[in-house]
Amino acid sequence: MRTLLDLDPKGKRVLVRVDYNVPIQGGKVQDETRILESLPTLRHLLEGGASLVLLSHLGRPKGPDPKHSLAPVGEALKAHIPEARFAPFLPGSEEARREAEALRPGEVLLLENVRFEPGEEKNDPELAARYARLGEAFVLDAFGSAHRAHASVVGVARLLPAYAGFLMEKEVKALSRLLQDPERPYAVVLGGAKVSDKIGVIESLLPRIDRLLIGGAMAFTFLKALGKEVGKSLVEEDRLDLAQDLLRRAEGLGVRVYLPEDVVAAERIEAGVETRLFPAEAIPIPYMGLDIGPKTREAFARALEGARTVFWNGPMGVFEVPPFDEGTLAVGRAIASLEGAFTVVGGGDSVAAVNRLGLKDRFSHVSTGGGASLEFLEKGTLPGIEVLK
Ligand code: ADP
Ligand code: MG
């Protein structure tokens, strides 16, 4: 990838694609992580004498929609970069171009949500050409969007000299270590809702790892594939054969697989609902498994001992609803307490759990990209990386 160090920003107007897809409530940004992670790139370019035009998406609007305006992000950004301002123009519009052309070195302009443009997700070449007029060079720092072949990610990158930002570089470097010569033993912890979301990652990582720990709802598809009684737990019936096949392949590759031994179960997903503890292979109807139990938490912590490389994706239970968050918190703590290991967490919900625990600094890398990090581990590259080569 061409990087920022290949670009002399002096006197240039640089178009930067950031990922400011952040949670907003009541017109205020709730979690600034992605904004903070973009600052090294923005400051480097500003100190080098550039002016900046920023593009980002926010949420999944179907056309222009004030609920998905980047205005609150502009406010939050200004607290860190006082020269930044938000202009409510469609990024492909004439007004946007005029504002961009009037920028002086040191100034920063954030334009409105790229997904307000109908051509954005279709990677419309005509829209990409209008984006390209906003700057003289393009920097892609939106790692969380780098798996999308959209106009503001790959379309415009083909039309301007294009470079990877510092966040993009940091993510690719950290995630590459999970694929290339990882230190062994190498453990992967997977959870979350569905096996089907994670098949690609499992298949890619299986030949590289030593231990695979499976929790979350996806564990029940594996347990059922082994003939266990999982009650009303979430099972992907159409993936039972696949689960069996993955377990067989793991065995063939000498990967030790850890599944839950006990589960915290309830009849409904509801805060304060009455919970019961069952062995993972005998959950009676009408109960559903909603978290890993205390025996499993201990077994998983032991299975992680001595690991030199760890990748974690997906919560161990319905961590949004206490008390079903305890398994996820226990696994987060177990990984964070490993000494000298290279530890990475990726995935929107698992990263939220790590942040909630205040354990962010005890991981070697916390990825800002959920889907992007999984797709990178599956394919070893992303559309947004290819376009910078
Ligand atoms: P990530 O965003 O970290 O990649 P996923 O999106 O794959 O994680 O999965 C997170 C979701 O999985 C959460 O909403 C959580 O409630 C759900 N989940 C985890 N365990 C269970 C379970 N046992 N039953 C139902 N849902 C579960
Ligand atoms: Mg998720």
Runs in which pLDDT lies below 50 for 5 or more consecutive residues are none
Span from first to last CA?
5 Å
With helices defined by DSSP (H or I, 4 residues minimum), what is the helix count? 14
Strands of the widest sheet, in order across it, are 5-6-4-1-7-8
- The radius of gyration is 23 Å
**In terms of structural class, how would the helical and strand content be classed?**
alpha/beta
Strand runs, count: 19
> Which hetero compounds are present in the coordinates?
adenosine-5'-diphosphate, magnesium ion
Question: Overview of this structure, please?
Answer:
- The protein is of the alpha/beta class and 389 residues long.
- The chain has two domains: 4-170, Phosphoglycerate kinase, N-terminal domain (Rossmann fold), CATH 3.40.50.1260; 178-379, Rossmann fold (3-Layer(aba) Sandwich), CATH 3.40.50.
- The protein is 33% helix and 17% strand.
- It has 14 helices and 19 strands.
- The protein has helices at residues 33-47, 71-78, 94-101, 125-132, 151-155, 166-176, 199-205, 218-225, 240-252, 294-304, 326-336, 348-357, 370-379, 383-386, and strands at 13-17, 24-25, 28-29, 51-55, 84-86, 108-110, 137-140, 162-164, 186-190, 211-214, 229-230, 256-258, 262-266, 276-279, 282-283, 288-292, 309-313, 342-345, 365-366.
- Strands 5-6-4-1-7-8 form a six-stranded parallel sheet, sandwiched between helices.
- α8 packs across α9, α10 (294-304) runs parallel beside α11 (326-336) and α11 packs across α12 (348-357).
- The chain starts with 12 loop residues before the first strand and ends with a helix.
- The model has no long low-confidence stretch (mean pLDDT 96).
